[in-house]
Design goal:
473 residues, mainly alpha, 19 helices
């Protein structure tokens, strides 16, 4: 039996130590930026006069460069089956430090959605239905204050958020009241659980656990959840939990958890198609829709208003934000109705979902099809693609580390520059920087996979012919 070359073993050990040291260095530098966050620019001459969003984009791109360096080291320098608990521990430790650094920060530079969450929780805590009245309605005047109410977006419209989100808001409000920091802390708690469940999912399918860096250190995840407090902290946790339950053969509990995710943010409903097979389609669909109905029962008194702001959101072109394919089609067909285009995109997503629904998924294929569905959702998003929506695809990148999507998670934040552009119009160059690399890399990856798979098949056929010629049976 051949023994492993001692010098080769020593080289691998040196490489592992070098990667560990590099990851620690990247973590320390990233932690310093997260801790200082916007105050960093006060120390740099010439940057102190920039708007908050401009500061954020520069800081985000710098952190993205560090993040991409860390991901490259983990994916390319660590053996696929290797498990170094010290490396995984340091990745998780820094991930928690990054998040805790941002919780106390004021989120209003990027988003005021957090204030709507608190408001909807307050309304419910006072015995009222959030779908019945807009925040500025006279019926809610006794709830107005000078901290939460002034920061609410769209005060003249009822809430946009589904029933699962509303029930969450009520529970969170009961726990932390009007505390913005408290609400953000809850979202970070769920985000941290997402990291742990993702590690369990990677372990179930036999992937290197160090891949968790793809999610745990992603600046988009960290800022949009720990800084802005977006609801994706809870939503993505529920989606990942559903995928994990499916992976360990707890399929019906997984479907119910996915229904909870869809009741918090509607778009995870598309993933139901990936979790259902021939044997459980009827039962799974029944469990999914019954869960949704039960969650909406407390709000049924709102009647037709229970859809909230959603119809306006789909119909109003001014709600359109950062759409790649839809923007292109609207430019190519300038006369087409915006709402019609929204409906066409929804139909296209339904067709993609139906195709996946009819396929028989075995083992990890369900995760792969869920990943494909999320990718199409990002491309065919019917109304807006805000940066925080993109968080949904990042857990899948720990299993399928696509350069196209990983880079997109770093460039999508450029869309915030719309808010500091003249007249608030999205500059075309931003869409080009975001979407051209995405579509080009996705197309190149598809062609490469097709070419590689054909090469493998041809190689197999050639090998079999050689065996036949040699008389091998």
């Amino acid at each position: 039996m051949d023994m492993e070359n001692p010098s080769h073993k020593k080289t691998k050990s040196l490489n592992s130590r070098a990667v560990f040291a590099a990851i620690v260095g990247l973590g320390v530098l990233s932690a310093a930026v997260y801790l200082a966050n916007f105050k960093t620019f006060d120390l740099v001459p010439g940057f102190s006069g920039l708007a908050g969003i401009q500061r954020y984009v520069i800081m985000f791109l710098f952190l993205s460069a560090l993040y991409l360096g860390g991901v490259f080291l983990i994916l390319k320098m660590i053996p696929k089956k290797a498990t170094s608990w010290s490396l995984i521990g340091i990745i998780i430790l820094f991930a928690i430090i990054f998040r805790l650094s941002l919780i106390p920060s004021d989120p209003t530079v990027l988003s005021k959605d957090m204030y709507r969450y608190i408001w909807d929780g307050r309304v419910q805590q006072n015995g009222m239905n959030p779908y019945r009245y807009a925040p500025d309605a006279d019926e809610l005047e006794n709830l107005w204050d000078d901290q939460i109410f002034p920061n609410i977006n769209r005060k003249d419209y009822p809430t946009l958020y589904p029933a699962g989100a509303q029930l969450s808001f009520r529970i969170f409000y009961a726990l932390v009241g009007d505390s913005v920091t408290g609400f953000k802390g809850i979202m970070v708690f769920f985000d941290t659980l997402t990291i742990l469940v993702l590690i369990a999912l990677l372990q179930t399918y036999g992937f290197a656990l160090s891949r968790i860096i793809v999610y745990a250190w992603n600046p988009l995840v960290i800022f949009e959840i720990a800084y802005s407090g977006h609801l994706e902290g809870l939503t993505v946790f529920l989606v990942v939990a559903a995928l994990y339950l499916y992976a360990i053969q707890k399929k019906m509990p997984g479907v119910i958890i996915l229904a909870l995710a869809a009741a918090v943010k509607m778009y995870p409903a598309l993933l139901l198609a990936a979790l259902l097979n021939h044997g459980n389609r009827i039962k799974g669909m029944f469990a999914f829709f019954i869960t949704l109905v039960l969650l909406y029962l407390p709000f049924i008194g709102a009647g037709s208003k229970i859809s909230g702001f959603l119809p306006v959101y789909l119909k109003n072109p001014y709600e359109s934000f950062n759409l790649g394919l839809k923007y292109l089609l609207m430019r190519l067909i300038p006369g087409i109705d915006y709402y019609l285009m929204s409906l066409l995109f929804i139909i296209a997503l339904a067709i993609v979902g139906l195709i996946v629904f009819l396929k028989n998924k075995i083992g990890i294929e369900a995760i792969r099809y869920a990943y494909i569905l999320v990718g199409w959702l990002m491309i065919l998003m019917p109304a807006s693609l805000h940066p925080w929506y993109v968080i949904l695809i990042i857990p899948f990148l720990t299993v399928y580390p696509s350069p196209a999507w990983i880079i997109f998670t770093c460039t999508v934040t450029l869309s915030y520059l719309k808010y500091v552009s003249p007249q608030g119009i999205m500059p075309t160059w931003i869409l080009l920087v975001e979407y051209l690399p995405l579509f080009a890399l996705l197309a190149a990856g598809y062609i490469l996979r097709k070419y590689t798979s054909r090469g493998k098949i041809a190689g197999m056929n050639f090998s079999r012919k050689n065996e036949e010629i040699a008389g091998v049976q």
